[in-house]
Amino acid sequence: MKASAIVYTSNTGFTAQYATLLAHQTGLPLFRLEDSSALAPGTEVLFLGWLCAGKIQGLKKAMGRFFIRCVCAVGMAPSQGYAQKLAHDLGLSLPLYYLRGGYAPARIRGRYRLMMAMMKAILSKKTDTQSREALKAIELGADWVSAQQLEPVMDWLRK
Ligand SMILES: Cc1cc2nc3c(=O)[nH]c(=O)nc-3n(C[C@H](O)[C@H](O)[C@H](O)COP(=O)(O)O)c2cc1C
Q1: Residue 53: CB within 6 Å of ligand 1?
Q2: Nearest CA to ligand 1 atom 11
Q3: What is the pLDDT of residues 47-95, one digit of tens each?
Q4: Mutation probe of ligand 1 site: the residue of 22, 32, 50 with most atoms within 8 A of C-beta
Q5: CATH 3.40.50.360 occupies which residues in the chain?
Q6: In angstroms, what is the span from residue 76 Cα to ligand 1's centroid?
Q7: pLDDT digits (tens, 9 = 90+) for 23-59
Q8: How far apart are the C-alpha atoms of 47 and 6, rounded to whole Å?
């Protein structure tokens, strides 16, 4: 196994679901970043973080504390080509996997709610298929979590 623990951040629960699935599949101990003080500094970690405005939440903090071996970014964008775009935009020199999580409008609070209201206003002016689908997910919610998406991550862990 290439990591000795799984650490994650999650706002509405989708990243937590992936992290829990991975912990079950690997037997690795699981920590929420906010509750990871029991984990020794420098521990080799597989990190999962939810995406907010193109940034992986908690990654900087986790990198300052642990030896991050691999990163999983969880978002709502369609998977096609998104991992490559993220890797390019973030300039990460780490294995990076993208997992499509979901969107739970009722669980979005505070400034995140405001950000998504702005996103909704932008998307509602667009007519392309991807924007319409994104708008539908923002209005109605969506859940794309699947164990199948974790297969490349499991392959990386076992290598
Ligand atoms: C304010 C805000 C910004 C977001 N930005 C992105 C983004 O840049 N890319 C993306 O794919 N998803 C984005 N999302 C969607 C979340 O990443 C997605 O709902 C994810 O599954 C949330 O994971 P969680 O339930 O663990 O918090 C955003 C959501 C919110 C509320």
Answers
A1: yes
A2: 75
A3: 999 999 999 999 999 999 999 999 999 999 999 999 999 999 999 999 9
A4: 50
A5: 5-104+143-158
A6: 6
A7: 999 999 999 999 999 999 999 999 999 999 999 999 9
A8: 6
Write the DSSP string, the chain: ---SEEEE--SSSHHHHHHHHHHHHH---EEEGGG-TTSPTT-EEEEEEEEETTEETTHHHHHHHSEEEEEEEEESS-STTHHHHHHHHHT--S-EEEEE-EE-GGG--HHHHHHHHHHHHHHTT--SHHHHHHHHHHHH-EE---GGGGHHHHHHHH-
Q: Is this model's pTM higher than 0.90 or not?
A: yes
At 70, list the tokens: 């691999």
Backbone angles phi, psi at 73, to 5 degrees: -100, 130
CATH number of the domain located at residue range(s) 5-104+143-158 in this protein? 3.40.50.360
Q: Encoding tokens for residue 47?
A: 């990190």
Mind listing the pLDDT tens digit for each residue in 107-148?
A: 999 999 999 999 999 999 999 999 999 999 999 999 999 999
